[in-house]
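Hey, resending since the last one bounced:
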Amino acid sequence: MRFTAVIINLLVLLSFNVLSRESPALQTIKAQANHSKIKVLNFGTFHFGPTPDAHSTEFDEEDKNLQKEVRAISKMIAKFRPTIICVESVPEKNEQLNSLYQQFLKHPSELITSSGETSMIAFDVARLNNVEKIYGIDNHMGYNYSVGDFIENSPELTNSIDPKTYLEITNNPFKHYPELAALDEKYESLSLLEKLKFINHPISLNASINANADKLLYVGLDDNFEGADNAALFYHRNMKIYSNLNRIKMNKNDRVFILMGAAHTAFLREFIKRSPKFEMVDTLEYLKTE
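The structure tokens again:
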């Protein structure tokens, strides 16, 4: 046993020394690669207005105190200095979107609330950075995110894949993260800033993918794939959103701010992490008071 322990310690030390010798070179390569990539602030939120989504947050867009909080958050985000701003609107409505933005620029002291977080945050961030145009990158595709709940709540139906895991993800998404579980329990009482910090935490974004798609991979009737088929539709929608992002002409000097519902933010994060084109900044670094 002692001999084995010595061998293990030697291997650890050897690995550490190799990594130490390689580290400066690897850091240089990564720095050079990142320098040529387009910086992205990939920002997730709940929808400020009515939403057909499975999960919603109580939010009164006309509340003046909440509007002050929104303004303060927009100023935090504006420090990223974006040159391109993308929102959860379909490209076919870009003309309407930017017409509304131009209306806001004429009277910037009053937030436009009709388009929820798009008109309340994205418009103000764009104004603060003199961005002339806002891009919608959404794509609408229908899918049944409640197919698993329907099966579980129908006595005549049996989930033949893995009901235990499905229900665990549904009922206890932060089982292994007690601090986030505690925040989740008191979510509605959090300030707007704290809610957005919670939403943009990496673990919360993972949970968002689980809640909207991956938990459906544990659902199916007999030898069928009702859950996987619907999850695939949501994956497909987000792939199209990412493709719409890539339709926008940009170069390495651009800085991209993306404002989407958290589930889309989570999927975009996965695509961007592997991209040779983009580099994400840490969203939480921009959600700080002075």
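Residues 2-35 form the longest helix (34 residues).

Sorry for the duplicate.
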